[in-house]
TrEMBL record:
Keywords assigned: ATP-binding, Nucleotide-binding, Transport
Transmembrane segments: none
GO molecular function: ATP binding; ATP hydrolysis activity
Organism listed in the record: Thalassorhabdomicrobium marinisediminis
Name recorded for this polypeptide: Amino acid ABC transporter ATP-binding protein
Membership in a protein family: Belongs to the ABC transporter superfamily.
Pfam families (alphabetical): ABC_tran
């Protein structure tokens, strides 16, 4: 568990981060979202002490970060930034193994870890481990950057706009990969973005920053359904709110008995998918299947009722 307790950063008369407190549960993703200059990066950099807080403290599994030497702390906390920051003259394998090497892991253990991570990121180890960063696409470099940050199984992974430089299609893929890998490894992640869509898609919890203050901290559904301030409502976008909410609810939750025409959707598909299937094909309902077997249907009326029940 990560506890952030009244953490503040001032630069002269300017308060960049203003008494932010929040708790991050082990094995979850917290996304910090806000506009430019709201203090997101400063908050993140105080957690691994790239910036020293002016007040407040951070505890990782009960241990205050100021009681540790910064270089020890940074070995326990992975850090991935936009543009990945790979070492250009080291191979992919050495880049990923950089922290385990610092920690004096035996060579065969480092190699096994590098190969395991490459496989997790769908990159064939034999094809990639000996290449140099310049021989990779932008998306592949980004994956190597995240793999490097995860290599020593850190207590916490900090990510600052990790997908900022990727085009929209690769970006969605990268987000899905991160989610899958985080669930597989049980990693604890804090990720900074200015993109609310990304926050909602990736976060177990979303923390919204405005003018250095934490203005709301909750699940994506809570943020969408009940924005705490006008600023949060603006970030979520009023018009998009119902659709965003529907995108978080699996069709399996409102499935009812009965049949419907046309191609079935899996129970794990979102209500947003079900709505768009109905609208696109002019149907009042879509059939739902679970493990390949018919499981009932989702109707437009049920989708509408669920979208209204957000209070
Ligand atoms: N070293 C510094 N000296 C003075 N002011 C700073 C310093 N670092 C950051 N600031 C100020 O603190 C505020 C918060 O900056 P920060 O980089 O944390 O914002 P951000 O939300 O991450 O923005 P962005 O999305 O643009 O990166 C800004 O107004 C910035 O100008």
């Amino acid at each position: 568990m990560i506890e952030i307790d009244g953490i503040t950063k001032t630069y002269g008369a300017m308060t960049a981060v203003d008494a932010v407190s929040m708790t991050v549960e082990t094995g979850t993703i917290t996304v910090i979202v806000g506009t430019s200059g709201s203090g997101k990066t400063t908050l993140l950099r105080m957690i691994n002490r790239l910036e020293e807080p002016s007040a407040g403290e951070v505890r990782i599994n009960g241990e205050a970060t100021h009681s540790l030497k910064p270089h020890i702390l940074r070995r326990r906390i992975g850090y991935a930034i936009q543009g990945h920051g790979l070492f250009p003259h080291h191979t992919v394998g050495r880049n990923i193994g950089a922290v385990p090497e610092l920690l004096n892991w035996p060579k065969d253990k480092i190699r096994a870890r590098v190969d395991e991570l490459l496989e997790l990121f769908s990159m064939d180890p034999d094809a990639f481990r000996d290449r140099y960063p310049a021989e990779l696409s932008g998306g592949q470099q980004q994956r190597v950057g995240v793999a490097r940050a995860l290599a020593s199984r850190p207590d916490l992974l900090l990510m600052d706009e990790p997908f900022g430089a990727l085009d929209p299609i690769i970006r969605t893929r990268a987000q899905e990969d991160l989610r899958r890998i985080q669930q597989r490894l049980g990693s604890t992640i804090m990720l900074v973005t200015h993109d609310m869509e990304e926050a909602i898609r990736l976060g177990d919890r979303v923390a919204v920053m405005d003018g250095g203050k934490l203005v709301q901290h909750g699940t994506p559904a809570e943020i969408i359904a009940a924005p705490a301030t006008e600023f949060v409502a603006d970030m979520v976008g009023d018009v998009e709110r119902p659709l965003r909410l529907l995108s978080l609810i699996p069709a399996g939750e409102v499935v009812e008995e009965g049949t419907a025409n046309g191609e079935a959707l899996p129970a794990s598909a979102s209500l947003r998918d079900a709505l768009s299937a109905c609208l696109w094909t002019g149907r009042e309902a879509v059939p739902i299947e679970r493990d390949g077997a018919a499981a009932g249907r989702v109707t437009l009326a049920a989708i509408r009722a669920r979208a209204e029940a957000h209070g």
